[in-house]
Amino acid sequence: MGTAPASRDVTSYGMGLAAPLALFFLFFFVAPLLQLLWLSLHNDTAGLHWGLGQYLHFLTDPFSLSVLGSTLLLGAEVTAVCLVLGFPIAWLYQRVGPKLQTVIILIVLLPLLTSVVVRTFAWIVILGRQGIINATLQSLGVIDTPLKLLYTQFGVVIALAQVQMPLMTLPLITALGRIDPNLDDASCSLGAGSWRTFFKVVLPLSLPGVIAGCTLTYAAAITAFITQSLIGGGQMLFMPMYLYQQASTLQNWPFASAISIIFLLAVLAVVSVFTTLGRLSRGYGGA
Amino acid sequence: MIMNRRSLMTTALALGAMKAFPGLSFAQARPLVFATFTGSWEEAHKAVLVPAFRKANADAAMVLDPMLSVDQIAKVNAAKANPPIDVMLHDPGPALVAIGQDLVEPYPVEKSAYYKDLIAEAQEPMGPAPFFQVVGLTYNPEAIKTPPTSWADLWKPEFKGRVGITNLNSTLGTGWLVEIAKMRGGSEANVDPAFKALEELKPNLAAVAANPGALATLFQQGQIDISPGNFNAIQILKARGVPVEFVAPKEGAIAFKTTIHIVKNSSNRELAFKLIEASLTPEVQTTLMNPPYLIVPTNSKVTMGGEIARVLAKDTAELKQKFVFQDWKKINEQRSAWIERFNREIKI
What is the annotated signal peptide range for this record (chain B) (predicted)? Predict the structure, then answer.
């Protein structure tokens, strides 16, 4: 055992504690990522000729760009649905008794306790031609022929929204919990109505949670390979499936690598927009 | 020897790592590794092939490591000199890739006791086919009273919005497209007629599944009533009580060879050969032909029976007559272009 330094600044922590995780990331995340980048800079599948051909192919091809666009749009739609549906739940959580709070948190967490595959299959049962929705509407006489819900953009958005909902609700619950309830009363006593209080006080103060929730939901929704392919089917192509097709079926690894790098950059761009908004909102919330 | 906390930790870590990554402990005799497919394949091989192999080879140690063809190829490619797999199983497309990348050894045909008994189409010198996969028409007999007889029936107006297909990611999807091309005057080299036919099929299409497995779910949910389908997958559904039937279309059922290969530089070459031999025996193939497996045999000494005799073929002669084999060398040449075209054109 070595001798410990005589005096030590107790407020600083050695970086050594973070070393195992850092090493882990270095080996299993950074290194493969660099390999991916290296591979994407080759024009042939054997990886012998350097060049930007793969990127040019993707960026000059309207079809590939439309896949990227529809994937980013899908993420936006899912995030919007999650926000609109998740916010009231989080808001309610702060205003009910402890018993109901336990119930709400259980309901919010429940989806996380079952596998994505199971949740997605449940949605196939719900959205199918003879599924719960169509059967109910038909027995009520609202529709004659079953609606097409499965294998549509609508179906994918709804299923993804449910699957990713906890990622939105949990940060919102935390953010709303930090708001001093007295602020509501103060706002009311100063003459603001409930809606005004919500938009001028609650919403701005909860923005950090909104941003965090949106970032998580967005990132999870656009990369959700299982739900996208099971609910969307084989003719709705999103980036993860496009990637899988090129890498797995066609063994075209350089193009698949280029797709992943482009996808990664696109997601990083969106996430950085969220983070910038978050930084701005912190100033706003503190004002 | 001084034991302090640090040396104890190091030892513990090293031991733990060796446990977690068995590959670390250097090349010593390891059991034979057979990379079969996941799902029903794994079940069938675990229950029938492995016991038969061990019985014939003095309880030799072997493990099943189920994974997709593409993963098998990637793993062997990553360690060509000392591959972690000894025996690979492939669909026709990936088999050609593996052979093309020089990952498999020629099968020692002259040593084999069973190779010559295989029907001609299954005799592949780079790795024989112990099983066939068969693709025909599957339909829901509760919704469709007159059984379909031809691929062309999918285009019938009465099936508006009831037809399911899969995209070209799968062997099934690609093979089916080629068959449609042939029906309309095309070939493995020219699938234009098939894409034109797909255009006409659009009003009937209820779903384009992302993989053949998803088709099963769509049948179960009543989303589709008719589709091209894999004989074995349908038998599994039927056994679960889902109303589905399989028919071989009059143009011929598409047969894919599932080939089995000795991996190049395998450290268990002899046992790998023995395992493949076991898979070619009439005994193993007969057991696998019977319920619940219903895998189509390739050894001509196997007498066809049960569901296979009823739906597919009574004997090898009829099998040859009713099955169509496709030229996957030609298909592989253009497959990526077709997948791209399918991505673009098939939107419903």
Answer: 1-27
What is the rounded CA–CA span in Å between residue A155 and residue A160? 8
* ipTM of the complex as predicted: 0.73
Say which of A1, A125, A234 has its CB closest to residue B166. A234
Residues of B in contact with A151 (CB under 8 A): 206-208, 348
CA distance readout (Å), A81 to A74, A218, B83: 11, 11, 48
CB < 8 Å to A230, chain B: 210, 214, 217
Q: If you compute the radius of gyration of chain A from its CA atoms, what whole number of angstroms results? A: 24
Q: Which residues 6+ apart lie within 8 Å of A158 measured at CB?
A: A81, A123, A127
User: Min CA distance, A64 vs chain B (Å)?
Assistant: 10
Q: Which two tokens stand for residue B157?
A: 């107006």
Identity of the residue in A129, A130, A245 whose CB atom sits nearest the CB atom of B169: A245
B217 in contact with A at a CB cutoff of 8 Å? yes
* pLDDT band per the 50, 70, 90 thresholds, residue B26: very low
Q: Does the beta carbon of B336 lie under 8 angstroms from any beta carbon of chain A?
A: yes
Minimal Cα–Cα distance from A111 to chain B, Å? 22
Q: Which two tokens stand for residue B312?
A: 């597919």
pLDDT by residue for chain A (287 residues), tens only, comes to 445 555 566 666 677 888 888 899 899 999 999 999 999 999 887 778 898 999 999 999 999 999 999 999 999 999 999 999 999 999 999 889 899 999 999 988 888 888 888 888 889 889 888 888 888 998 898 888 888 888 888 999 999 999 899 999 999 999 999 888 888 888 888 888 888 888 888 888 888 899 999 999 999 999 999 899 888 887 788 999 999 888 877 878 899 999 999 999 999 999 898 888 877 766 654 43
Distance CA B323, CA A116 (A): 39
Residues A172-206 as b or e (16 or more Cβ within 10 Å = b): bbebbeebeeeebeebeeeebeeeebbeebbebbb
Is B232 buried (19+), middle (13-18) or exposed (0-12) by CB count in 10 A?
A: buried
> Would you state the structure tokens that stand for residue A190, as one six-digit string?
């100063």
For residues B279 and B127, what is the distance between their CA atoms, to the nearest angstrom?
A: 12
> Which residue on chain B is closest to A227 by alpha carbon?
B210
Rounded alpha-carbon distances, angstroms, from residue A142 to A134, A146, A154: 10, 10, 19
Of B68, B223, B336, which is closest to A129 when you measure between CB atoms? B223
Asked if residues B284 and B297 have their Cβ atoms less than 8 Å apart, the reply is: no
- Which string of DSSP letters, residue by residue, matches A147-187? P--TTSHHHHHHHHHHHHHHHHHHHHHHHHHTS-HHHHHHH
Of residues A118, A92, A114, A115, the one with CA closest to residue A103: A92
To the nearest 10 degrees (0 to 180), the angle between helices B328-345 and A62-93 is 60
* List of residues 6+ apart from A153 with CB closer than 8 A: A74, A77, A232, A236
Are B302 and B286 spatial neighbours (Cβ–Cβ below 8 Å)? Answer: yes
Which domains are present in chain A? Answer: 61-286 (1.10.3720.10)
Which residue ranges form the domains of chain B, and what is each CATH number? Answer: 29-131+257-314 (3.40.190.10), 133-255+327-345 (3.40.190.10)
Contact predicate B36/B64, CB 8 Å: yes
